Each structure stands twice: as C-alpha cells, then as structure tokens.
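wait is this the right file?? whatever heres the structure
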C-alpha cells in the first residue's frame, strides 16, 4: 500500500465534500493507496499538518477552498522534499482550479492524482514567511470581487462588477504607495492592486490577461489609480473587461519581484483570505516551486 496524506476542510463552499468523501476514499484505496485523512479544525490547521507530514508522503491531497490550498502550500514551502499536490476544489470561488482546468466534479478532480500527469508551477513568497498560490492583492475592489455573488457574476458578467463597484465608489479608499520592479517603478494613489499567477480572480476571467504562463517565473501585475467620478470608474472597468483603448488609470505589467512601500499600513488578501497589514512588502516569484496534478 502506498502512503497518501489527505487534508480536507469540511466547511468549504457548500460542504459538498461530506457527500463525496466515501467515494473518493474508495477510489484511492482501490488504486492501492492508504490515505491518512485529517479534517481541519482551524484556519492554520492545514498548514501545520502539511509541514509536519509533507516530507513523509509522495502525494498530498487537499480538499477545500483557495484558502485551504494556501495553507497547505505555506506548510510545505520550507520542506526539502515536497510532496506532489492533488487539489480537489470545494470552495465557492476556486480560482486556482479554474485556471488549471481542474474538474469541478470532486471525484474527477481526485482522480487526477492517479493519472500521473503533473506540472511544476510558480508560487509567490509574500514577505519573509508568507506564501500564495495565485494572488496577492489589496484595495476595496478586492472585497467587491469576493463579495459579489457568483450567480450574479455568471448572469450579468462584468456589468455586475461595475454595479457593485459604483455602489461602493463613495467608500473607495486610495492608498498612496510606490512600487518598484526589475523593469520600472510607479507611484501614486491606488484603489486596487494585485500580483497574480492565474487567469481567474474572484470568479472573473477578465481581470487578468489570458496570456498567462504558470511556470515562467513571472507574475501578472495590475494596478488601478483612484477614479474621481463614477464615469471614470466605468471607463476603468470597461477597459479591464472589454479590452478597450489604453486607460491612464490602469497599469498592467509582468514582474518576477516587486516591492511596495506605502505611507500607512495596507491590508492584503492572499488567495482570497486575509494576509495581514503591511507598510512595506517584497513579493517574489518562486519559479516551478510546487508540483501539482493537473487536469486534461
């Protein structure tokens, strides 16, 4: 029997894993694996288990939302021998799974661990000891992206995002900061910024360029200056989603390392979860640092 660590968050999404678990375990046992199952008890639980047992197994299966996957990746980041990761998406957004075309069906996603098809992908280091799988972001539009209901996004597309954004215009807060990367620098007042390695953020595919390589050592960076009116915000959103003419408020570029300085502490989001507050942070791309089982 081959060893396997299976970390699952039963509270992710609509708790569908509870109805799928027996079938998934049967799939692995039939294939000759002896899964050691751990049900997470807290937000940091997955990180601790991954760090403690990650070197002792060839395959680590993770079922949960993007936040659970973030904890697992953070847990194995410091290991000298890292396991291959099989991700069974169970959250409400599942941006990472969307980008890698991992099946939404849990049993099919679990079966990827038996296919042997893997890819070494980039992950990000945030500061000295934090990591992220696909996005580090700040700003009010991050909150809108994750709080807009998925059914509204699916039905209305980018207009739903625009409506939510305009509704929050009066509460948008600009962050005065300076960003420096290997090929340039920029300063000003920004309402939103993200450093990504994905094609989907908050359930939207239009926010990031579709020309994304997950293993090239480069992040896709998006920074948005503070708009003064709802009309300016409308132009920003139109540019981002409809790929219209260049906009003086929207900046896109690639970087392997980017450093931010701000005048005050800024709250960050890592993979859809709170990532702490920072006044100065260095974000680095760790090229092909993690190996994932991928779908067709």
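ok assuming it is, sequence goes like this
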């Amino acid at each position: 029997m081959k060893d396997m660590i299976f970390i699952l968050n039963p509270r992710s999404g609509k708790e569908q894993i509870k109805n799928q678990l027996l079938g998934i375990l049967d799939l692995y046992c039939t294939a000759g694996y002896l899964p050691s199952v751990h049900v997470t008890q807290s937000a940091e639980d997955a990180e601790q288990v991954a760090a403690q047992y990650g070197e002792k197994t060839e395959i680590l299966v993770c079922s949960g939302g993007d936040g659970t996957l973030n904890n697992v990746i953070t847990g194995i980041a410091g290991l000298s021998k890292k396991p291959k990761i099989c991700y069974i998406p169970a959250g409400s957004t599942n941006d990472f799974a969307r980008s890698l075309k991992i099946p939404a069906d849990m049993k099919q996603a679990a079966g990827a661990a038996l296919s042997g098809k893997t890819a070494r992908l980039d992950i990000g280091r945030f500061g000295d000891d934090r990591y992220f799988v696909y996005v580090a972001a700040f700003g009010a539009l991050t909150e809108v992206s994750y709080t807009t209901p998925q059914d509204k996004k699916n039905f209305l597309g980018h207009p739903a995002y625009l409506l939510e954004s305009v509704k929050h215009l009066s509460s948008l807060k600009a962050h005065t900061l300076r960003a420096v990367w290997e090929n340039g620098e920029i300063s000003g007042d920004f309402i939103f910024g993200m450093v990504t390695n994905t094609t989907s953020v908050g359930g939207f595919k239009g926010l990031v360029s579709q020309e994304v390589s997950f293993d090239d050592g480069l992040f896709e960076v998006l920074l948005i200056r503070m708009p003064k009116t709802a009309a300016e915000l409308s132009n920003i959103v139109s540019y981002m989603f409809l790929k219209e003419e260049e906009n003086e408020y929207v900046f896109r570029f690639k970087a392997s390392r980017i450093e931010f300085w701000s005048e005050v502490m800024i709250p960050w989001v890592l993979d859809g979860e709170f990532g702490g507050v920072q006044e100065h942070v260095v974000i680095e791309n760790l090229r092909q640092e993690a190996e994932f089982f991928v779908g067709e």
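The chain has a mean pLDDT of 83. so i think its the right one actually
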